[in-house]
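Could you help me review a protein record that somebody else here produced? What it holds is a sequence and that sequence's fold in token form. I need someone to confirm that the token line plausibly describes how this chain folds. Take the sequence as given and treat only the tokens as open to question. This is what I was given:
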Amino acid sequence: MEAERLRTLLRTQTIATMPELKAVLGTDVDVTVFRKLRELAYHSSYSHRGQYYTLDETARFDARGLWSYRSVWFSTHETLLRTAEVLVTDAEAGYATDELEHVLHVGVKDPLRTLACDGRIVREKMAGRFVHFAADDAWRKEQVRARRVWDMAPADRALGATVRGVPDELKAAIMLFCSLLDERQRRLYAGLESLKLGHGGDRRMADLLGLDAGTVAKGRRQLLARDVALDRVRQARGRRTPLETKRRT
């Protein structure tokens, strides 16, 4: 019965702090709350010092296992330490500290240092900065190779830590494809690709496609808001001449 009261609060508020959970149960003891939370499928935040809680049924985790609500971040891997370890290990080309901070939206210097000291990840200096890789030797070699390719890419072709670079052939194909689109379609396509890239995607796609960053941002916002009127697309293609008009002609 007490666990259901916690469930009701978390369903209503989406997230809640320990003081709020204790108030619902009428207790001042953290252990009592945790005992009741164990009856539910829940997650604690890895940001904000783990002060927030949410139900598993509420969270909508992305492909990396991350989800946020009102700037509070949660992970399927639960703790920041474990989350950082998994992301570094799974990354195609490893992660530099600032790159991982862009993904996790919290500082990661201390967790990465701890993981490296414990041998759970490996830190190597590349292109003048430290990059973190998996502890497994075979996979780390692949990550290092991918990182070297990415670091060698010119700045105007670099699309982020998880994208090695845009080959000239692919860039030409993208430009050709965009030339077949009308202005609105180009804006939405650029917005879609920006969403895939994440942080800094608007500027990267604007540089790649020769668009204004504001245009890319508008396309991205339209997609997120589902502000796409399909009828206008159909009308833009033109209408067939009515049969009666043809006959009169």
Notes: Residues 154-165, 233-237 have pLDDT under 50 and may be disordered.
